[in-house]
Amino acid sequence: METLTVKNGTTSANAQSVKNVVLVHGAFADGSGYRGLYEVLTQKGYQVTVVQNPLTSLEDDAAAVKLALDRQDGPAILAGHSWGGAVITESGNHPNVAALVYIAAFQPDNGESAL
């Protein structure tokens, strides 16, 4: 089940008009697991970025996501699977983030450990 958290006054309708999607993989995986989703979303007209997390620490993974968000040409939906949920929580305060999507993912509060 997916949970959509809309932030910064963005309504569900506005979040649906966002054309950038940033995908964050979980631990014990890499970005190639998103290939099918990447293809479906790009065929529907979305600009999709798959972040390749270094998986060295939460801070390093969040830094990789923030670099990807810096390169977006507008607001983005940030989605994370498994460990990626903790990563998107950590980097979800970036100004380009319109919404967070947790895909069977950890969903910690700010400052809370994924453990």
Order of helices and strands: EHEHEHEHE
| Major sheet size, sense and barrel closure | 5 strands, mixed
> In which order are the strands of the major sheet placed?
1-5-4-2-3
Total DSSP helices: 4
Q: What percent of residues adopt helix (DSSP H or I)?
A: 25-40%
Averaging pLDDT over every residue, what do you get?
87
Instruction: Identify low-pLDDT runs.
Output: 1-5
Structural account:
31% of the residues lie in helices and 27% in strands. Helix 2 (35-43) links the parallel strand 2 and strand 3. Strands 1-5-4-2-3 form a 5-stranded mixed sheet, sandwiched between helices. The protein contains 4 helices and 5 strands; from the N terminus they run E-H-E-H-E-H-E-H-E. The protein is of the alpha/beta class. Mean pLDDT is 87; it is low at 1-5.
Which features characterize this protein?
alpha/beta, 5-stranded mixed β-sheet, globular, 4 helices, 31% helix, 115 residues, 27% strand
Summarize this, please?
With 115 residues, this protein is an alpha/beta fold. Helices cover 31% and strands 27% of the residues.
Protein topology:
Blueprint: E1 2-6, H1 12-16, E2 20-24, H2 35-43, E3 47-51, H3 58-70, E4 76-82, H4 83-91, E5 97-105
Parallel strand pairs: 2-3, 2-4, 4-5
Antiparallel strand pairs: 1-5
Helix pairs in contact: 3-4
